[in-house]
Design brief:
The chain has 14 helices and 7 strands. It is of the alpha/beta class.
């Protein structure tokens, strides 16, 4: 089985395989398994004896990957957990160090369009936004219980939303009359809160608010910081750490931590981006940024 013929083509696939340089017998970790596209390519490139340890905290993604990658048998082990627990996962499988780690921080089309958890503002769904439904706090919980100041800080910090205070005030006013529970409600609130002259030209007016809520619900930046800080300790000398980010908060964190680690050598002076052909077939690839570092020998 090959990634190109049986799986959705993941972002920067050829670039990831090139920089990761999988080899026969190597052991690799895909921290965001998704539907398994990157993992399949790594397994193909490291055949016949390469292994991948796949991690994902989305139950639906784990089930899909198990089906998609069934033919790889014992060369693949899958764990339903957060990638910040990479050390625990490796301990469970008896692995002390690995030949490469991949982070793909993007969302799949299945999560955006078919999860029913409110990741997208393009359809009316419950405001859940939990990547792992075992977590207790949903996006609706935050919207209905955080103070106005807490909401404004969240939207500004995680969404870089310049109208954060105005949006937070409208949310607090709205929830005094009605519980906020759907994406449709939130889109309407944001649209009315932000004057038309301040609506962004290239993205939907609610994009940054949805991003901020998703990051807060899933503690995405905290988890990313943990795996970036701890992951390098798990690499063999010369092994590669590849990280694909999709917004500036993630990319800045990856860049700064890679540079701050004395045990890592940054291999990509500037982030690797998708080419015109990939962007034309997958518009989401436009914002993808790949950074790579290697464990010093």
């Amino acid at each position: 089985m090959t990634a190109s013929t049986t799986l959705h083509h993941p972002v920067l696939l050829n670039e990831v395989v090139c920089w990761m340089s999988p080899r026969n017998g190597g052991v690799y970790v895909d921290c965001n398994l998704g539907t398994g596209g990157h993992t399949a390519a790594i397994l193909d490139a490291s055949s016949p004896a390469g292994r991948v340890i796949g991690i994902d905290w989305d139950k639906d993604a784990v089930e899909n990957a198990r089906q998609n990658l069934e033919s790889y048998g014992e060369r693949l082990e899958i764990f339903h957990t957060n990638f910040s627990r990479i050390d625990e996962v490796l301990e469970r499988v008896g692995v002390d160090s690995v030949d490469g780690i991949l982070l793909d921080l993007g969302f799949s089309s299945l999560q955006l369009e078919k999860s029913g958890r409110g990741f997208s503002f393009q359809r009316s769904e419950p405001l859940d936004m939990r990547m792992d439904v075992r977590k207790s706090v949903t996006a609706a919980d935050l919207l209905n219980n955080c103070t106005q100041e807490e909401l404004a800080d969240m939207f500004y910090r995680y969404g870089q939303e310049k109208q954060a205070r105005r949006i937070a005030a409208h949310i607090v006013s709205f929830r005094q009359k009605e519980v906020i529970s759907t994406t449709e409600q939130l889109v309407s609130i944001v649209g009315k809160a932000v004057p038309r002259r301040f609506h962004p030209k290239n993205i939907h007016v609610a994009t940054r608010v949805f991003q901020a809520l998703r990051i807060a619900v899933n503690e995405e930046l905290d988890n990313l910081e943990k795996v970036l800080g701890y992951g390098s300790k798990l690499l063999k000398p010369g092994a590669r750490f590849c990280a694909i980010s999709f917004h500036s908060l993630e990319d800045r964190l990856v860049k700064n931590i890679f540079l701050s680690r004395s045990d890592l050598q940054v291999l990509t002076r500037k982030p690797v981006k998708s080419g015109i052909e990939e962007i034309s077939s997958n518009p989401r690839a436009r914002s993808a940024r790949l950074r790579v570092a290697a464990k010093r020998l």
